[in-house]
Amino acid sequence: MSRCLFAVVVGCLVACTLQRSEAAAEWKYRKGTHFIIQYEQDISDNLASDTLREAERFYDTLARQIGYTRYRKFWTWDQRVKIVLYADQESYVRETGLPAWSGGGATQYHRQLKSRAIVSYRQERNFLNKILPHEISHLILADFFGKTPVPLWFNEGVAQLQESGKVAEARRLIAKVAGIGYVIPLESLVRMDVRIQTNQGVVLIFYAQSVSIVDFLIRQHGNRRFQNLCRFMREGLPFQRALGKAYTGIFDSPAQLEEKWLYSVKN
Ligand SMILES: [Zn+2]
After folding, report:
1. Ligand 1: distance of its center to the CA of 7 in Å?
2. Greatest mean pLDDT range, 119-123, 141-145, 199-203, 210-214
3. Alpha-carbon distance 35 to 82, whole Å?
């Protein structure tokens, strides 16, 4: 189950307290070009360094894919994103007020930290491989698209791209459900608000299709066209029209994208 935390957490974090940030002596810091890792004493310096290195790497990869590089100055110096790491789930839940089921979250503006922030805790597998790239992607997309509305599936598709193993996992699921006709038509996917979807099966397929289609666009047709697609959407074109403009001669319509993508997943 991979329902996204971003939308849930945005409102929550802003209201949440972060009590230990006031007791600065309890925190340690590691600073990079675009991120500052703020971590509890119990956390090793190695984990903080790994987190910083991976955060910078995810940032660079996504910035290249969507064409964000010329905006990168917005994330340096006093605009750096704070990544707050608690020693364990217990202190994370206690200090942030976020639900125990959440592995972490991100917000565009954290009142106490006075910056964009990602909060999480030391955990065995998911943080570096999944939560960190996902939440960083959401923050970059929010900056890149600003107030221009972007379909949720596109946002979630891009956010999952750098999660370890996600694309392969999505392809396996789609190959399985496509055989029994459970794929969501692109026309519906573009309009779907998965946040109010109660059928867990549909939620899984929604996330799988989103990342698989975004991956298909980039892998088959390169970063340049994908950057153009993002730019046209940023300028306010709806996805369908931006697609036609960025992929002229490749996809005449969203239906053709759907057809070619599905063919690639099945074969
Ligand atoms: Zn998400």
Report:
1. 8
2. 210-214
3. 6
| Sequence-ordered list of residues with C-beta below 8 angstroms from that of 69, at least 6 positions apart, any chain | 63
Q: Which of 14-18, 42-46, 123-127, 191-195 has the lowest mean pLDDT?
A: 14-18
Q: Which CATH class is domain 6-145?
A: alpha beta
Q: What three-state secondary structure class fits 111?
A: coil
Residue 173 pairs in a beta bridge with: none
Ligand 1 centroid vs 24 CA: distance in angstroms? 31
pTM of the model: 0.88
Decide: 224 and 233 in contact? Cβ < 8 Å: no
- In the chain, residues under CATH classification 3.40.30.160 are 6-145
Distance of CA 193 from the midpoint of ligand 1 (Å): 12
Residue bearing tokens 């699921």: 173
**Structural contact between residues 186 and 162, judged by C-beta atoms closer than 8 angstroms:** no
256 CB contacts (<8 Å, ≥6 apart)? none
Q: What's the CA gap between 206 and 32, in Å, rounded?
A: 35
- Compute the distance between CA of residue 11 and CA of residue 106 in angstroms, rounded to an integer: 10
- Condensed to tens digits (0 to 9), the pLDDT of residues 36-80 reads 999 999 999 999 999 999 999 999 999 889 988 766 566 777 789
Q: Alpha-carbon distance 12 to 171, whole Å?
A: 33
CA 106 / ligand 1 centre spacing (Å): 10
- Contact 266/178 with Cβ under 8 angstroms? yes
Asked if pLDDT for residue 7 goes beyond 50, the answer is no
Beta bridge partners of 84: 38, 119
> In angstroms, how far is the first alpha carbon of the chain from the final one?
26
